[in-house]
Amino acid sequence: MARISGPTVEEPWPAVTAADRRRLLAGLLREVSRTFYLTLRVLPSSLREPVGLAYLLARAADTVADTRLISPGDRLGHLLGFRDQVKGPARLEDLRRLEQALTEMQSSPAERELLTRLPSAFSMLEASPEPDRALVRSVVVALTRGMETDLTTFPAEDSGRIAALADDAALDRYTYDVAGCVGEFWTAITMAHVPALKTWDGEGMARTGVSFGKALQLTNVLRDVPKDLRIGRCYLPQSSLSGLGLSLEELLDPSSGVTARPVLVAWIETALGHYAAAEEYLLAIPRRCVRLRLAVLWPVLIGLATLAQLARNRQWLDPDHPSRVSRRWVYRTMAVSWPASPSNRLLRAWIAHLRRQVEAAL
């Protein structure tokens, strides 16, 4: 007699223990991003899980997109598959296949572990309150679009070729996809969890948050130009470089920094405009919300200090002369910021001081 098979029963989502949560949102998150971990720890407790979970899922997507042992086309396929899982409904068997395909190709133990723990992360996502779940899904999907741009615009890292974003509009779109969208997410999730923000104009603050995110991403883009060029990526617009008579290959010569400096200065000035919006975003947070203020203040201070380093760096195209603030500076700034955070006057003065350092060096 023939055997009749019943319907396939999907593997249930794994139970997530308290120890699993601690590992994901504390230990593992600290290992994949020490700087963001500090921001997460200072947030009000109700925000740590949705914000931390969004970061971990975005970090996992970034790991997929950056697995250089496979072709950009294959990476794109895996990234789009991961995006489908984030959109939902997620399937455990699809996450297992992604883990099997990519885990052994990671050189970082933390990134390998992140891929193996995706079932737990998605289980936490599925168990989240629906408003949080929708916001996390939305921002991670948006972030994957920036990663998709990287994979479809630029050549493989070892190809020996370089490509650039086409024009100013392309760079502006990119900064939205990889950071501006986080400003929208941050606004919505904090308004949902912090009662003191209930009176905020959500749409207006979201627009300001987009500028905040763009400020931070432009800082990263400008700081990392030498490193990115050496893996075939130029985020400085091709139209601006062509206007100066520069080819992409010439940017590999650090001495071209003098000729290319007008492009750098123009985008630093654009970033400063976005930092003005970031300052207003910070000061719109009620003074009594010290932890939330600090979580916003720290990236502003670090970003402006980095821009000042970059503006002073006449060898900005030389990978051996990076424009970075020291870890000691970061920790000292964090310590000093605690007593200063409730004072709008002190924060405005501090930010103005850093802005003047940038402007004086341009």
Largest sheet, order of strands side by side? 1-2
Query: Could you give the count of β-strands?
Result: 2
What structural category arises from helix and sheet content?
Answer: mainly alpha
Number of helices: 16
Q: Low-confidence runs (pLDDT<50, min 5 residues)?
A: 1-9
Principal-axes shape call: globular
Query: Approximately how much beta-strand content do the residues carry?
Result: under 5%
Largest sheet descriptor: 2 strands, parallel
Helix content: over 70%
Order of helices and strands: HHHHHHHHEHHHEHHHHH
Termini, distance in Å? Answer: 84 Å
Give an overview in words.
- With 362 residues, the protein is mainly α.
- The protein has a domain at 18-129.
- It has helices at residues 18-32, 34-42, 45-65, 72-87, 92-102, 109-116, 118-127, 130-153, 168-193, 202-223, 225-229, 238-243, 257-284, 290-312, 327-340, 344-361, and strands spanning 163-164, 233-234.
- It has a two-stranded parallel ribbon.
- Helix 9 packs across helix 10 (202-223) and helix 13 packs antiparallel against helix 14.
